[in-house]
Amino acid sequence: MRLTRVALVLSLVMLAAPALRAEYVVLRSGQRLKVTGYELQGDKYHLQLNGGFVDVAAADVVAIEPEDTFAPLPAAAPPAAGAQPFYRDLVEAAAKRHNMDADLITSVIAVESNFDPKAVSRKNARGLMQLLPETAAQFGVKNIDDPAENIDAGTRYLRDLLQKYNNDLALALAAYNAGPDKVQQYGRVPPYAETISYVRRVKRGYEKSKSAPSAKTAAPSTPPGSPVQIVPPAPAAASAPPRTEQPQSQQQ
Q1: I need a surface site. Which of 8, 48, 94, 209 has the fewest CB within 10 A?
Q2: Is 1 strand, coil or helix?
Q3: DSSP string across 137-167
């Protein structure tokens, strides 16, 4: 009986060892499972998820990827009443130039990089708005790590996507995360857990910013749930590569 308990403890330790933080198990179907531990048992993976375990055939697992995380910003004193978010001046300047809502851009930055200008994802998306180098080059960015250039290019790209999808914010955000080709493929927000979560988090932050009292005046306000107002110049291609952590076979 004692040996049985020891074996059980050892198996639990081995199960938890591979994952010191959350990871994603990517399946051939395109589904992504967020796991906190896993163990290969013969021809199947024994996965530990929040709330239980599940077994998946090893042949169905395409990859096991670490979750992108960004170091939290240093703790700071609570902002005084009326204080503006990080980089608010740069955000408002870009929003005014491209006739976008500054609150939307701030909400995107919060989810993309947690306001860390040095954030770099596993796919090499960089800076506050997590631009891929090829996306940055498309918009003439010389220094992708410069907050002003990064915010300006990200704002322009998001504006182009809003134009492309007739001000449908969910589709524009999905394309910003997973790529326009995936939105075109599915005709809706792609069924990827990461992309669905991304769209929800940005929209939730955006709506929250609209419901809170604010002294912001540089960019026009938009009621929650309403289309984002933008100037309708000629539609842009908005064909930058996807930044989602889907495996390459799922991106094209």
Answers
A1: 8
A2: coil
A3: HHTT-S-TT-HHHHHHHHHHHHHHHHHHTTT
3-state SS string for 11-68 = HHHHHHCCCCCCEEEEECCCCEEEECEEEEECCEEEEEECCEEEEEEHHHEEEEEECC
CA angle 27-243-199, nearest 5°? 85
Mean pLDDT calculated for residue range 145-167: 97
**pLDDT tens digit string along 181-198?**
999 999 999 999 999 999
List, in order, residues 6 or more apart from 7 with CB less than 8 Å away. Answer: none
Average pLDDT over residues 215-230: 43
**Whether the Cβ atoms of residue 32 and residue 193 lie closer than 8 Å to each other:** yes
- Encoded tokens for 70: 């960004």
Instruction: Collect all residues with Cβ–Cβ distance below 8 Å to 132 and sequence separation of at least 6.
Output: 123, 124, 125, 126, 240, 241, 243
From 39, 112, 149, 245, the catalytic residue: 112
112 is catalytic: yes
AA letter at 54: V
